Model the fold of this input.
Amino acid sequence: MKTRLLVTTVAASLLSLAATAMAQEMIYPEKCKGMDMAQTGTPSSGGMKTDMSSGGDMKMDMPMENMGDYQKAAMEGMKSMHDNMMQGMMQKDPDVAFVCGMIAHHMGAITMSEAELKTGDNKAAKAMAKKVIAAQKKEIADMTKWVDKEAK
Done:
C-alpha cells in the first residue's frame, strides 16, 4: 500500500513538473499580475482556491491517485490557469482584466492540448490539439502585445 502511494505521488509530481514546463513556454504577462490578497481579497497565487460565492476557498477534493495521466496533467494546468485568471480579472481596468483573463484561459487550453498530444491516441483529437495550440499561441502573442501597450 505504501509503495503504491509513493509511486502515485512520484508520478503526480512528475506530471506536475511536465505541465509546469509546458505552461512556462508561455509566460503570463507581468502587467496582468501584481494584485494580491490585501488589495483584492482573493489569493494571488497557490492552487485552485478561490470560491467566488463565499470569498473563501474552493479546494480540489479529487484524489489524484484515481486520475489517469491526462487528467493529472490537465488538472495541474487548470490550477495554474485558474490562479492567473483570477489575478488578471482583478485588474481595475475592465479591458485589461478581460484581456489578462483571456490570456490565462488560452494558456490553459494550450496546457490541456499538450497533455492530449502526450497521452492521447486518436489522430483527429491530436490534430485538434495541434490546431488549438497554434491558434491560442497566436492569440496570446497578440493579447500580450496589447497588454504591454495599454495596461498602465
Remarks:
- Residues 5-24, 36-58 have pLDDT under 50 and may be disordered.
- The two ends are 54 Å apart (CA to CA).
- The beta strands are 50-51, 56-57.
